[in-house]
């Protein structure tokens, strides 16, 4: 099994000399550049949202349940390790360690895009380690809308996955030199993947947010769960721009809807019918988790922060962090008088700053 924070790549069975191909190099770039973004603490739209404090509304911490239900499954905790990696030796080691932390804490987890393994079967072990290290946990497979329905099914089978994430990342593709340019077929392809998938499908952004019309469109394609994955954390416009020699898209770092704004527009004037909401993008703390839950998310995904925690503190450090977040989410729910995740949606919230202005322009009172 993988070492706590080993940089050797020897004991874990992933051979770094296999990383010369362009897929593996891109995966290693993403890890390095995403970690660099975590070095700088970032203000984001969660800071424009505050709870109104009611001193006598708190309930006993022992009465608070952190359980939630996502894609028809019961989860013990309302947050999860969101899609990141796979497809290189380093990515395989990270996936093994993330999966060990998920198994130790009961957290759900996603792999990164499996396209590299669909193209190069020798890279499969860097993904399947997620299931090997966590045989009975909730695991998301991950593909984009360019794969065929058959490949999507193959990705699910590769991991014996509990559900399938389909990432929609047009901004990332546009900024990438080697990215896709043909986006027009995506809706029909998503519909075909949903129809073929043996497990529930979650359509997610990768840090640019989902607008209400996008969520309504996804609902019409048969999608029942979405992850808004908004602006405020890992920024793939910046990452892909830094991977270009010319940095041509230097101005794209403000693109996208924040996670808070996406959740607000998804919920007003009423929630989009038949769609279960997940949230991610810029979640830095247990307070951000609770804010996203209060805005209607069933569970909250974390990528960049958990990657940085693993990098700095190793697998045991990540396990400690997940346990600490569980303790603190319970403390915050008790302060807010919420015995359940659903109770949080009755919280009194104050919205200020640029997010309040944007929400008003989109018709959210
Ligand atoms: C990602 N993300 C991502 N998403 C996806 O659906 N497929 C993928 O392959 C990847 N790859 C990836 C690599 C790395 C290193 C990071 C940090 C992230 C996007 C991720 O799931 C999430 O949507 C965004 O990162 C926003 O969340 P954070 O990082 O702000 O918590």
UniProtKB/TrEMBL annotation:
Segments forming domain FMN-dependent dehydrogenase: 42-113, 182-347
InterPro entries listed in its UniProt record: Aldolase_TIM, FMN-dep_DH, IPdP_isomerase
Keyword list, A-Z: Cytoplasm, Flavoprotein, FMN, Isomerase, Isoprene biosynthesis, Magnesium, Metal-binding, NADP
Cofactor: FMN; Mg(2+); NADPH
GO BP, one annotated term: isoprenoid biosynthetic process
SUPFAM superfamilies: FMN-linked oxidoreductases
Pfam family, any one: FMN_dh
Disordered: annotated span: 1-25
Compartments it resides in: Cytoplasm
Enzyme class name: isomerase
Protein name per the record: Isopentenyl-diphosphate delta-isomerase
The species this protein was found in: Bifidobacterium actinocoloniiforme DSM 22766
């Amino acid at each position: 099994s993988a070492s706590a924070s080993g940089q050797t790549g020897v004991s874990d069975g992933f051979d770094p000399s296999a990383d010369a191909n362009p897929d593996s190099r891109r995966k290693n770039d993403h890890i390095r550049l995403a970690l660099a973004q975590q070095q700088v603490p970032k203000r984001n739209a969660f800071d424009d949202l505050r709870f109104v404090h009611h001193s006598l509304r708190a309930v006993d911490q022992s009465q608070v349940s952190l359980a939630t239900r996502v894609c028809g499954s019961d989860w013990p905790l309302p947050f999860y390790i969101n899609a990141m990696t796979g497809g290189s030796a380093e990515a395989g080691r990270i996936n093994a360690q993330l999966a060990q932390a998920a198994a130790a804490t009961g957290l759900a987890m996603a792999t990164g895009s499996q396209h590299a393994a669909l193209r190069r079967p020798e890279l499969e072990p860097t993904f399947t380690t997620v299931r090997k290290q966590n045989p009975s946990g909730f695991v998301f497979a991950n593909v984009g809308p360019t794969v065929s329905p058959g490949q999507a099914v193959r990705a699910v089978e590769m991991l014996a996955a509990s559900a399938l994430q389909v990432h929609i990342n047009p901004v990332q593709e546009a900024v990438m030199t080697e990215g896709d340019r043909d986006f027009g077929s995506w809706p029909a392809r998503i519909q075909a993947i949903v129809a073929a998938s043996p497990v529930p499908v979650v359509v997610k952004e990768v840090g640019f947010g989902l607008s209400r019309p996008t969520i309504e469109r996804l609902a019409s394609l048969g999608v029942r769960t979405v992850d808004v994955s908004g602006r405020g954390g890992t920024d793939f416009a910046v990452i892909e721009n830094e991977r270009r020699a010319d940095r041509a898209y230097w101005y794209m770092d403000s693109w996208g809807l924040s996670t808070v704004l996406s959740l607000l527009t998804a919920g007003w004037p009423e929630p989009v019918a038949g769609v279960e909401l997940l949230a991610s993008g810029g979640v830095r703390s247990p307070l951000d988790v609770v804010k996203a839950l209060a805005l209607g998310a069933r569970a909250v995904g974390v990528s960049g922060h958990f990657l940085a925690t693993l990098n700095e503190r190793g697998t045991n450090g990540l396990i400690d962090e997940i346990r600490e977040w569980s303790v603190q989410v319970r403390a915050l729910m008790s302060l807010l008088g919420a015995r359940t995740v659903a109770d949080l949606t009755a919280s009194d919230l104050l919205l200020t700053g640029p997010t309040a202005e944007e929400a008003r322009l989109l018709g959210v009172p």
